[in-house]
Amino acid sequence: MKKLMTVMGMAFAMVDGVFANVGVFNGSGQTPIVEKTDAVQMVEEEVLMTPRKAKGPVTGSCRNFDPMDYRCTFKLRNLKDEAVELQVGFPLDIETYRMKGVHAEDVGKLVKSFNFSARSGNEKFKVRFVPQDKEKKFSKLFLWTMKFAAHEERTLVVSYTMEGYLGLSPVVTLDAKDEVEDLRDIDDGLLFFSFAFGIGEAHTYVTGTGSCWAGDIQKATFKYFPQDFEAYLAKRGALDETEEERKQRQEEKGKRGKEARKKLSKGMRNLLKSECRLVRYWHPSPDKWTRKDDGAGRFHYELTFTPFRPSKDDSIILGYVAPPMPTEPDDVDILEDVVREFVKSNGGNEKQYLRDVKDVVLEFYGIKTGNTRIAPFIDKQCWKGQESPGQPSIALKKRLEEKR
After folding, report:
1. How many whole angstroms separate alpha carbon 191 and alpha carbon 356?
2. Cα 70 to the chain's mean position, in Å?
3. What share of the chain is helix, strand, coil (3-state, %, to 5)?
4. pTM above 0.90, yes or no
5. Alpha helices in 298-393 (DSSP H)
6. What pLDDT, in 10s, does the model give residues 347-375?
7. Which end of the chain is less congested by CB atoms within 10 angstroms, N or C?
8. Cβ–Cβ under 8 Å, residues 232 and 55
9. Does the pLDDT at position 302 exceed 70?
10. Lowest mean pLDDT among 7-16, 66-75, 244-253, 289-298
11. Structural domains of the chain sorted by starting position, each given as residue range(s) with its CATH number in brackets
């Protein structure tokens, strides 16, 4: 599956991915700059996020991406005894290199592309667009003017749709991401490092620009509605496959020659395939969100802050990652080859390493092994504590447990 491996060249956005919070910007030209105001307070913020299935197959070609619908409601209050006029901006992205070929005069096309809308009551704001701010921190900037009477409180509603990101994703938790490189410094670091990345997709809501308003945000509520989307992911797996890709993979699987075996055993990347099981990669972690029942079998998740002082560390990531875990018995051959190559180059106890790596896989599938040696590594994995992504087949479980 050559197209599948093109995914490996894409960067998965961890924190600084998509900016999606309203802020105050100064400047009338093509290079506005974010600024702090003491005149208007963001009193409350509510963000509804609903992911959807892409219109086309989500494959390694990265031609289609699953989108997210956002509906953001901001309660803004003028703190002054006089009227205030502000230029309000909503940056959708900070990856300015993605703006090639997009020009400010394409406002109508861009508004339609993002389904972008900003309104307050019956007033729908006419927006202008700039590719980036003066300091090149933000891109895809929609800007408009808001007027407030003395002590007036206005409700601003912004809605839009953004495609997600697909690519190489960390499997370690966000809190442990700085420790990924440190895994290389321990005895089995290079071996466990093989499990550190997988195929992932994510949508991000970064709250940092909310800090430019006066005072604290008294209450911020984030609501996520993933029920239908996660059912789709459970059926799809890490990626969709075209008929051509599926046929090619089946043909390769059917080969039993020595050269085919050699080709198969190039490393952990060969485990990254459509059948890989997806787990949640959320920040804050899934246990920080509260499940809310909506009736008739429907539910969503909520995250609430009172008060809310937005910072870079408060970025919300709603992602899913498929670690390079075996899904069939033949995949265990790849694990064994990785261990043998590691021992050949670095030394160590091959038997012990084989047990450790296989036990990591068993733990991923929810099968407790009691192996304390791998505990520090598992503690850093985003899938720890989550519901098992499913049981391995009897044949796979047998291969993983043999010679333990």
Report:
1. 10
2. 15
3. 30, 30, 35
4. no
5. 331-346, 350-364, 375-379
6. 888 999 899 999 999 999 999 999 998 88
7. C
8. no
9. yes
10. 7-16
11. 1-404 (2.60.40.3680)
